[in-house]
Design a protein that fits this description.
- By secondary structure, the protein is mainly alpha-helical.
- It is elongated and about 80 Å long.
- The protein starts with a helix and ends with a helix.
């Protein structure tokens, strides 16, 4: 009887330490997101300061297609939606549906990244390279940092799929997926700022 009590106590303690570890991982990730917010806020501040002192803005109907950027925005927003649906299926242990929606998120994210890189190439093609002036440097920095984050997210998706395939649904994979979901939604918010301040207001 005493051995059973000791075993149950050790088991409970072990589970408790695992839960605490996963909670610390989530807290650590929130701190990372806040630091990322500060980085993007700094880049946006530089952009606004330089833009306020610039006489002309480079965007016009010849250098950019608002329809393309709007489509790009829809692609990213829908990828965020598919990511959320995939996470719901993960919680319900519907693994096949989870894979389906996560693959869709991967494809949409890849499509978005291709369009974003094409937009930057289009700017350079029209003679608006980052070396031209400080304003263009700040814009390319913002777009490039966002694109790098998207690329990291795509690698993360592949990692989640492989980990879930190898070890199934467990607490560790849940934490991993939860953090990725936060990260992907965070990139959506950053993109909405980029879309509003660089593309929409930039054309006014």
């Amino acid at each position: 009887m005493t051995k059973k009590i000791i075993f149950a106590y050790k088991k409970e303690k072990e589970n408790s330490s695992k839960i605490n570890l996963e909670s610390k991982k989530i807290l650590g990730f929130w701190l990372y997101l806040m630091s990322d917010c500060i980085i993007f806020a700094s880049f946006f501040s530089v952009y606004f300061v330089i833009k306020s002192s610039s006489m002309h803005f480079f965007l016009n109907k010849n250098t950019i297609s608002l329809k393309t950027v709007f489509l790009e925005t829809l692609v990213l927003l829908f990828s965020s939606f598919s990511c959320g649906i995939s996470f719901l299926h993960f919680q319900k242990r519907k693994i096949k549906k989870m894979y389906y929606w996560l693959f869709l998120t991967l494809i949409l994210g890849l499509l978005f990244l291709c369009i974003e890189v094409f937009e930057m190439y289009n700017f350079i093609k029209h003679g608006f390279s980052p070396q031209k002036n400080g304003l263009l440097s700040s814009i390319f920095t913002l777009l490039s940092v966002h694109a790098i984050h998207i690329f990291s997210g795509l690698i993360w998706i592949i990692f989640i799929i492989s980990q879930t395939y190898l070890s199934g649904i467990n607490k560790k994979n849940y934490t991993n997926f939860f953090c990725f979901s936060l990260f992907w939604h965070f990139l959506d918010i950053i993109w909405l700022f980029l879309y509003s301040f660089i593309y929409l207001i930039g054309l006014l």
